Amino acid sequence: MGNNIIEKWSTLKEVQEYLGVGRETVLNWIAKRNMPAYKVGRLWKFKISEIDEWVRSGGADDRAAEKREPKDKG
């Protein structure tokens, strides 16, 4: 019975510190890269296990974003 550990919700600030990125970066990832985040009232809340999985699957990879942009600018 005692090994059902419930993961606590993390704040935007905790996720910034965990990933070593700024507030705007996290908010952009939520808006544009499908970062797992939940709105609770006016606050964003996160599960670190979901953030880890998202990072591992390439969600934060800049190269993935570059592939969507046109290569030929001239």
Instruction: Indicate the overall shape.
Output: globular
What is the strand content?
A: 5-15%
Low-confidence stretches: 68-74
Note the run of SSEs as H and E: EHHEEHH
**First-to-last CA distance:** 64 Å
Mean pLDDT: 86
List the total number of helices. 4
Q: Which quaternary structure do these chains form?
A: single chain
Q: What is the topology, as strand order, of the major beta sheet? A: 1-3-2
- How would a crystallographer describe the biggest sheet? 3 strands, antiparallel
Query: Which structural class best describes the helix and strand composition?
Result: alpha+beta
- Report the C-alpha radius of gyration, rounded: 15 Å
Brief characterization of the structure:
By secondary structure, the protein is α+β, with helices and mostly antiparallel strands.
